[in-house]
């Protein structure tokens, strides 16, 4: 299997570009094993660039989890990039009643780190 070319777009999230390429290469390897006809008549490097551009904003563990769930969700045909992103959005949905983004709360003043209260109390 060919590796993703180095001229792929830069990552938008905290993972380095190389890690993003590794995720896409691993994803393509899994999809090829799960769907024997995946990528039969498509240029691999260009297709990987497109998938990389679409998936660079997602977390690596979510992409890997979606790759594992793909055969259950799409048993007959490989997912399109749009279907794969839909699966990623479902994985990324917060659970009802679970706090979102609590890591931005200051433990001292118990306010959001970008709030005026935090700025005044925790200088």
Give a verbal description of the structure.
With 123 residues, the protein is mostly helical. It folds into 2 domains: 1-92, no CATH class; 98-123, no CATH class. It is built from 5 helices and no strands. Helix 3 (60-73) crosses helix 4 (81-92). The protein is elongated and about 60 Å long.
How many domain modules?
A: 2
Rg, alpha carbons: 19 Å
In whole angstroms, the N-to-C terminal distance is: 53 Å
* Overall number of strands: 0
Mean pLDDT: 80
Low-confidence stretches: 4-15
Structural class assignment: mainly alpha
Which term fits the overall shape? elongated
Largest sheet: none
Proportion in helices: 40-55%
Bin the strand percentage.
Answer: under 5%
Compressed to H and E, one letter per element, the order equals HHHHH
Q: Helical segment tally?
A: 5
Outline the fold blueprint.
Elements: H1 17-34, H2 44-55, H3 60-73, H4 81-92, H5 116-121
Quick rundown:
The chain has 123 residues and is mainly alpha-helical. It has helices at 17-34, 44-55, 60-73, 81-92, 116-121.
Primary descriptors:
2 domains; about 120 residues; 5 helices; mainly alpha; single chain
């Amino acid at each position: 299997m060919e590796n993703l070319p180095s001229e792929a777009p830069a990552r938008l999230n905290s993972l380095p570009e190389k890690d993003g390429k590794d995720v896409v290469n691993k994803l393509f390897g899994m999809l090829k094993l799960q769907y024997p006809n995946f990528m039969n008549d498509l240029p691999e490097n260009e297709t990987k660039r497109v998938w990389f551009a679409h998936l660079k904003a997602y977390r690596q563990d979510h992409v890997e989890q979606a790759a594992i769930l793909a055969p259950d969700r799409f048993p007959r045909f490989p997912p399109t990039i749009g279907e794969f992103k839909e699966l990623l959005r479902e994985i990324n949905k917060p659970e009802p009643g679970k706090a979102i983004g609590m890591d931005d709360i200051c433990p001292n003043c118990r306010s959001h780190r970008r709030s005026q209260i935090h700025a005044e109390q925790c200088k």
